[in-house]
Amino acid sequence: MSTENTSIFSKIRNASFSSKFIILGSILAVVMILGSASPALMSILDFGALEVLKLMALFMTVLFIGVLHVCRKALFDYVKMGDLYNEALKGNIAAAIVFGGICIAMVAIAIVVAVAVLTFGA
After folding, report:
1. Domain, as residue range, for 85
2. In-domain check, residue 3
3. How far apart are CA 65 and CA 54, in angstroms?
4. Considering the domain boundaries, does residue 111 fall inside one?
5. Quick one: DSSP state of residue 7?
6. What are the C-alpha distances in Å from 95 to residues 20, 75, 83, 104?
7. 3-state secondary structure (DSSP) of residue 91
């Protein structure tokens, strides 16, 4: 039996930067969305509603990037973009085509998600 340390803190410590970025950004976005709806909170802030809206837009962007990252991982779980990029830099045309194709697919998903958010409200 393996005696690896699999505590939550070791998993967080060993997580990649993108995972930490997505998790922290998502938590901050949820806190801002839930907190911004409270008129009591808005009345005790020292700065105006415009700054709160700017912060919400920033956190929503982080959340959007996180959703795109999760979509890419779900659709192309067998592809490692870093490996493709490195192979494309070495001159491998097939790797460059696959890398470009995944980028185009992610732009299409980003457009679909943006249209859905604008259409169905947020």
Report:
1. 76-122
2. no
3. 17
4. yes
5. -
6. 28, 17, 9, 14
7. coil
pLDDT digits (tens, 9 = 90+) for 60-106: 777 778 778 878 888 887 888 888 889 889 988 998 999 999 999 98
Question: Tokens 């779900």 correspond to what residue?
Answer: 74
CA 29 to chain centre: 11
CA distances from 60 to 47, 63, 121 (A): 20, 5, 13
**What does the block give as tokens for 89?**
């830099």
- Torsion angles phi and psi, residue 3, rounded to 5: -110, 35
Residue 32 near residue 45 (C-beta atoms within 8 A): no
Angle between helices 93-120 and 49-75 (to 10 degrees): 130
**Could you tell me how many helices (H) and strands (E) the chain has, helices first?**
6, 0
